[in-house]
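Throughout this chapter, every protein is written as a compact record of paired, labelled lines. The reader may check this reading against the record printed directly beneath this paragraph:
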Amino acid sequence: MIDQISNAIAEMAKAAAARLAVFAAIALVILTGIGFLIAAIFMYLAAQFGALGAALGLGSVFVALGLVALAIMLQKDPSDAIDQPIAGEHGTKRREDDVLLDMVIHAAKAGFATGQGDKARMQNGFDQLVTDFSDLGLFEPRERRDASDAGDDFPDRAADDPGDQPDKNPIDPNAKRAG
């Protein structure tokens, strides 16, 4: 079982490396094309304004683009790129990436315990998954719900909706259809 998991992880890593190599090759081709476009623009501007004018013009454009990009980056809060800790079940703080990794591990442990028929470890794994989901804020376990909707699996459903009520006059299966 562990060998299968490690083999699957190795295959995923190889596939990711292959995709990365393809993207790197594509990026290299695109950058080469951009370089030739810049060279063509320079040659056109050099024919119109001379080599010095073309160099000054292109240099000014690239400096302006760099300053605009810098201004955009400085407007963003640098902490946006950092995972913020999530308040855990027992007051601990975990990053979202840590919670997601824990979810994968807990799901694997629960699945392994299910395959082995170990109900206690299976239930423990599912309980840990519920804790992970609640730490992400996806739902609250039944114990945390208000007493008012504890017995109702669908608290948003209208209780007086006639479609939710059982039929008072069930159809007689022996009766003929009208029409």
